[in-house]
Write the structure tokens for this entry.
Amino acid sequence: MRGTHTPGVGEESKRMAVHALPAGRVSFEPHMPQTLEDTGLSGSLVDDLLLKRLFLGGPQTAGSLADKLCLPFLVVLSNLSELRRLHLTHVTGAEGYGERNYLYILTEEGEDRARSAFERNMYDGPAPVPLEDYVESVRLQSVRDVVITKQAVEHAFRDLVLHDEVVNEIGPAVNAGQSLFFYGAAGNGKTALATRITRAMGTDVYIPHTIAVEGSIVEFYDPVSHFKVADQDDRVDPRWIRIRRPTVIVGGELKMDSLDLSYSPSRKTYEAPFQMKANTGMFLIDDFGRQHMPPAEILNRWIVPLELRVDFLRLQTGRKIEVPFDELLVFSSNLDPSQLMDEAFLRRIKYKVAARDPNKEMFRLIFKGACKTYSVPYDDSGFEYLIEEHYVKAGRPFRGVHPRDLLDQLVALARYIEEPPRMSPRLLDAVVNTYFLQA
């Protein structure tokens, strides 16, 4: 087959050259490669992908193979021609005019080579991008280069009722590209606040489907964390996907081993860890302090990334690779921050934002919004009754989540007793008695 292509001086920057782009949407677009060298991949890696695809998919046209591998047709045709010369493939016919429609199939020797390729890994999908190209893409799309204004933050949080101080505290943290700690009582929207931060950033980014690392495949694109947006034009390398800046959220289920490369013995590929998927966006550790390991253990994991802006991940061979740590690291907890971390780490978390209880007028606005959501007619006398009887007399604090939860139960109760949902004292008393613990 072919040897491994090693990028020379200046080649990486050529591959990662960007188009002149409109301000505010994306900061870079990867060029469509024209040659194998432009892809940064070895011919043998592309051969493996072609052999595995033909083995699994049977006879296929050169054009469909190029589309499946997300590589230019001429690059794929060159590799197919070499495989044909080596008697690993042959052409059985055509489904139309031109070389793009030539139908390829494996020979017996080609099937043997495909089995050997599967022994290396089971990956069958878009061709990867080299690790160095991924690293450069993160640099070009860094969260540290994002500049947001008070207006942008207010627009991103427009569906929430917030104290003005909260908006003014979040914006500078995003502009600084620094870490954040949201703390406060449960039910005041800490998670809702955190998940809207990337919305305030406004721009889209490009991420790879997969990454090639020292002969291994790291599967990167995750539809749960990466929201794919507009279709790409023909100038863009299809090995990359345009997404909104990522928002990756983990909670009490977080384990330390999920913060390193995850190797699948059956697929013989790696999956990128949470914080790597969050690069150029935000990584939220929700319910901090409720994980199965001590808070100090989680915090110690971030000392080097926060200081150096790089992370170190381990391959099965024991070799460590260096990857960017370029994201807003956000902690959210309803526990006392001083009980979760010492002064030294509190100093590393540069911005601390309290999710404050709403006041009465804010609570009224939240309640009105929830009424619209649940199609319950808002009644001011019913609201005043609720506040006086179940908050003032009970000495109960307002929480931002209460209106949603109370109205959800009110609608369910009204459906059960077969009457229209309304903010009557009788229905409000009933749902309060089942929602709150009674003394």
Remarks:
- The CA atoms of residues 54 and 277 lie 30 Å apart.
- The radius of gyration is 27 Å.
- The longest strand covers residues 89-94.
- The chain has three domains: 42-123, 132-354, 360-435.
